[in-house]
Amino acid sequence: MFKFWCSQEQGDPRPHEVTTNSWYPPCVSSPSSSRPSTPNSTNASTYTQRVGEWAHVSPTEAAGIIVYLKDKSVDELRKLLSDPEAYRQFLLSIDPVRTQNNVRDELRNETLQLARANLEKEPQITELRNQCMIIRTSELASAQEKLNDLTKRKAEILKSYSSGSLLHKLQESMNKTDEESETLHQQLLDKEIDLATFVQKYKKLRVVYHKRALTHLAAKTSLVG
Asked: What's the pLDDT score for residue 62?
């Protein structure tokens, strides 16, 4: 499209003022030649930038942009090329650009709303943080100490009811009953008690002793097995 404009204006002998700050190749802004001339020193950087941008435009995107340009006059197109503000206004009038800007504005507004909501909650967050610090330094320490005591007591209770501990206690009770029997027998020899009393008490003690002995033997055997 741009080459067509250049070739049409090539035969016009009237001099035209060349725009030195054109945003696009000088062939569009300079009708004296049908070839794109080398950009001069004043628009070299802008020209290079625009050419770099064109290199990333796909055919589909280019066709979409041409739809917005096809009904514009040559003067309007030249103004777009030479006037940055006119180019900006045209760019903002394109539907995809307008949609993209609307999405950007919506995201920006949502982000600002979330930021304001976070700032409004900052005093509450600070208060909760202080409460957590108090709990961590005072209540948590006390609760941890109680937990340690309960854990220690639990370990002691479990230890006292372990198989080895129960067998040990049963053995101690057997030894105690046997000692009581011997003491009772000594009392009989010393004539501190009569024979009938001795028989009655001694029989009870020996029954208890043998029951505990059998229990101890059965428990020990089951543990070994």
From this structure: 63
DSSP string, 141-204: HHHHHHHHHHHHHHHHHHHHTSHHHHHHHHHHHHHHHHHHHHHHHHHHHTTSS-HHHHHHHHHH
User: Where residue 96 falls among pLDDT bands split at 50, 70, 90?
Assistant: confident
Here the tokens at position 31 are: 């009708």
Task: Report yes or no on whether pTM surpasses 0.85.
Answer: no
pLDDT at residue number 199: 92
Rounded Cα gap, residues 159 and 166, in angstroms:
9
At 37, phi and psi to the nearest 5?
-80, 160
Residue with tokens 């539907």: 95
Distance CA 114, CA 133 (A): 27
Q: Please determine, for residue 150, whether its predicted confidence score (pLDDT) is greater than 90.
A: yes
Which pLDDT tens digit goes with each residue over 2-36?
333 333 444 443 434 434 444 444 444 444 433 34
Tokens 């001339």 -> residue: 37
User: What is the spatial distance between Cα 30 and Cα 12, in angstroms, rounded to a whole number?
Assistant: 11
Instruction: Compute the distance between CA of residue 83 and CA of residue 115 in angstroms, rounded to an integer.
Output: 39
CB-CB neighbours of 27 under 10 Å: 21
